[in-house]
Backbone:
């Protein structure tokens, strides 16, 4: 169902302003079903009354302007308030500017809205800020969604229009590099805040979070503060998502529907997906792998030949969009989505927006007049000012545009006459041309990925291009990676959300969409956030702490739990995979499994790995794990194995003993150098399993382990500092580099020694090379008794 019956009743109800008799002239009071709000004669909030709990929620002694303005370089709070109950309009007066701001206040059963409907004099305000509204609620703060809550109540502020920005006004750009400030903790509880900028006049900003000083930003005609709108609400703490859904429907805010269900309540929220490049000829094989693993989507990491116009790579898709449509049809028949990856507003240098004639709407950090005529053969370009060209904070392509020509330069002269030196004329396939003195020399915004970016007008066109491609092909999943590239327009976080809004508005079917960064307005459209990259190490090492930290952020902001991307290689083991899957079960989190067709074909354990993913994901998504099991699975030091059983699964824990240390010791000639440890096996007898970690300097080799009187285990492998070796239940020992990436397999030449129940002696020795010598730590692992895992409601 889209939203439950209680939301439907709230939305369907007649929504009229509830204006209670004002307690004093110049004051105004409004009531929703959960919140009564009073503003005083000076334009500040005087009360946020929690109706359900009969408690004041406005923090005492804190400034609480209904809204403030930025005008002529200064901030002003309101000095007067007048309320016209018939027109439902509050007029706020400001001093010394004399500005008046008219705000329509509308109370509905679920929420109260404040919308700017007029500013006098027109164009006199650079920005308007709602709040900050200080509340006494602060146990949990959703900084992106804009909700503060405790055990009984939630108070929230929602931004309802694209121009309305959620959070603190930190700079003229309107960007916030943090993860969100729509709601923030405060000593007394929390604050809620939002703002809107007048973008209708030319501005000069420090662009892209300060990387581009004095960046000129052209005006957006008609984009004033009028029309900005927020919703203030209170609800029971366990009904927040339901309440936000009702507000979206009532106010016409984005409210995406997937398979007939509001996306925020979709059963596909937080589902895992497979990332692998496919072609027209390989899509069937990769869909079979996706289906076997029980994953939601087969997601192509790099399908496009260029970003900007979004033409498919002809090598993978010789039939172009028709080939992709065929892949989508095949996936639908299997109940699988097709997804693709791109980098939002990034434009490749081989795209038609760049070559052979650059689009005049490519974003610039600034420009300078050409100081002297330039012929077609010159490799030096004279400019009036070096300011934009000498900025090396973010200048990788060193590219300028003059007319229809792109020119790359190596450096800027150290003194006048200011000159771009060692130039490449007609760069990126453009045509060298003569240029007259006075022509604008524009410095293009670029990026380490060797791309350019659009102005806001071209950005809209690119977003429409992408939406049309999705409509033509039926692809239904996308990650808005690199959303920060939209900052190149100079329009701050507004531009990031505008790209998504234009894309969303031009779709003819639902598209599940993810991101690595979020914002309050985009929250309404976004399906999931999947932060965490696999390129820096193995399953355990690559950003794992960051991935875990993200789960609390997601919980605070009503975002599905996701663990990020992991990498399945030709050497990925079952133990590695189950280590990650246990964390996913513990946090109730999905993930993306990035791989290649070659890795899937080469890994001998691929069928086992895919089956294992399917079983863990089925158990997680069915709610089969108990709270206690999930708590244990969150502990990164614990490992588990899951296997199917009648009416559910068996969850097998592994118990660690150790670590035990071995160091180089000087001994008399002939004296044994081994170390003997007493290892206790609390479980049943089983083959030896362990993890060996090398630290310090030098390296070790000739590893020897003996258990009781059994034949010893000798491994002819050399390990350096930071490297490790793992012997698991497969009977093979795997070696890992210092970043946790598997780099070898050692197969013992004789049966693995067994650990009997109880205490026993284990001897260890190795050869040391180098100074300072290495330190060896060995942790032994045993398989414990299985625990039952069943979906809720299954028979026992």
Residues:
């Amino acid at each position: 169902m889209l939203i439950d019956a209680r939301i439907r009743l709230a939305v369907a109800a007649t929504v009229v302003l509830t204006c209670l008799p004002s307690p004093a002239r110049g004051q105004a009071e409004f009531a929703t079903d959960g919140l009564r709000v009073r503003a005083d004669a000076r334009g500040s909030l005087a009360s946020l009354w929690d109706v359900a709990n009969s408690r004041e929620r406005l923090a005492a002694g804190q400034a609480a302007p209904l809204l403030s303005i930025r005008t002529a370089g200064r901030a002003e709070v309101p000095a007067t308030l007048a309320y016209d109950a018939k027109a439902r309009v509050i007029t706020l007066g400001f001093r010394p500017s004399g500005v008046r701001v008219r705000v329509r206040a509308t109370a509905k059963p679920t929420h109260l809205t404040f919308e700017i409907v007029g500013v006098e004099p027109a164009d006199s305000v650079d920005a308007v800020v709602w709040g900050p509204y200080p509340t006494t609620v602060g146990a949990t703060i959703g900084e992106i969604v804009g909700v503060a809550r405790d055990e009984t109540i939630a108070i929230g502020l929602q931004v309802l229009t694209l121009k309305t920005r959620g959070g603190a006004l930190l700079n003229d750009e309107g960007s916030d590099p943090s993860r969100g400030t729509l709601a923030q903790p405060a000593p007394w509880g929390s604050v809620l805040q939002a703002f809107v900028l007048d973008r209708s006049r030319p501005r000069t900003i420090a662009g892209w979070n300060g990387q581009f000083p004095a960046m000129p930003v052209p005006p957006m005609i008609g984009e004033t503060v009028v029309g900005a709108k927020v919703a203030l609400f209170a609800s029971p703490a366990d009904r927040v998502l339901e309440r936000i859904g009702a507000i979206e429907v009532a106010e016409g805010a984005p409210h995406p529907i997937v398979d007939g269900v509001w996306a925020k309540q979709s059963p596909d929220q937080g589902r895992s997906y497979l990332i692998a490049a496919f072609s027209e000829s390989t899509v069937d094989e990769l869909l079979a792998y996706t289906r076997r693993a029980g994953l939601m989507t087969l997601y192509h990491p790099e399908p496009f030949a260029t970003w900007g116009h979004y033409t498919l790579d002809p090598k993978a898709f010789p039939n172009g969009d028709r080939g992709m449509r065929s892949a989508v049809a095949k996936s639908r028949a299997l109940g699988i989505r097709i997804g693709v990856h791109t980098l939002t507003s990034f434009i490749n240098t081989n795209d038609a927006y760049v070559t052979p004639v650059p689009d005049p709407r490519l974003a610039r950090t600034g420009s300078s007049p050409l100081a002297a005529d330039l012929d077609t053969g010159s490799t030096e370009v004279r400019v009036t000012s070096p300011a934009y060209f000498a900025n090396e904070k973010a200048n990788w392509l060193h590219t300028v545009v003059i007319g229809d020509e792109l020119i790359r330069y190596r450096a800027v002269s150290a003194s006048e006459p200011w000159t771009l030196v060692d130039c490449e004329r007609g760069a990126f396939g453009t045509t060298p041309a003569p240029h007259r003195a006075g022509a604008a020399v524009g410095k293009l915004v670029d990026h380490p990925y060797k791309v350019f970016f659009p102005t806001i007008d071209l950005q809209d066109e690119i977003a429409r291009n992408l939406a049309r491609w999705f409509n033509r092909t039926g692809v239904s999943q996308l990650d808005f990676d690199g959303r920060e590239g939209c900052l190149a327009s100079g329009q701050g976080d507004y531009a990031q959300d505008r790209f998504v809004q234009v894309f969303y508005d031009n779709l003819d079917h639902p598209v599940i969409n993810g991101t690595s960064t979020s914002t309050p307005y985009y929250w309404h459209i976004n399906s999931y956030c999947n932060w965490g990259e696999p390129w820096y190490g193995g399953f355990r090492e690559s950003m794992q702490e960051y991935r875990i930290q993200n789960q609390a952020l997601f919980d605070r902001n009503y975002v599905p739990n996701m663990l990020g991307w992991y990498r399945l290689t030709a050497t990925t083991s079952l133990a590695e995979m189950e280590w990650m899957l246990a964390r996913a079960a513990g946090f109730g989190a999905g993930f993306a499994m990035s791989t290649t067709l070659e890795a899937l074909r080469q890994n001998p354990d691929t069928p086992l790995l895919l089956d294992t993913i399917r079983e863990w994901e089925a158990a997680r998504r069915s709610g089969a794990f108990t709270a206690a099991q999930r708590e244990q699975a969150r502990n990164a030091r614990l490992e588990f194995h899951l296997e199917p059983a009648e009416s559910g699964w068996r969850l097998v824990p592994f118990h660690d003993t150790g670590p035990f240390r071995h160091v180089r010791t000087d001994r008399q000639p002939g004296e044994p150098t081994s170390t003997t440890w007493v290892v206790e096996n609390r479980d049943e007898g089983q083959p030896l399993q362990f993890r060996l970690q090398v630290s310090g300097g030098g390296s070790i080799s000739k590893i020897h382990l003996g258990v009781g009187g059994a034949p010893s285990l000798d491994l002819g492998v050399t390990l350096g500092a930071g490297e490790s070796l793992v012997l698991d239940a497969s009977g093979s020992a795997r070696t890992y580099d210092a970043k946790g990436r598997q780099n070898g397999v050692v197969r013992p030449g004789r049966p693995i020694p067994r650990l009997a129940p109880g205490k026993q002696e284990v001897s260890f020795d190795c050869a040391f090379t180098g100074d300072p010598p290495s330190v060896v730590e060995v942790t032994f692992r045993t398989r414990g008794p299985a625990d039952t895992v069943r979906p809720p409601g299954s028979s026992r």
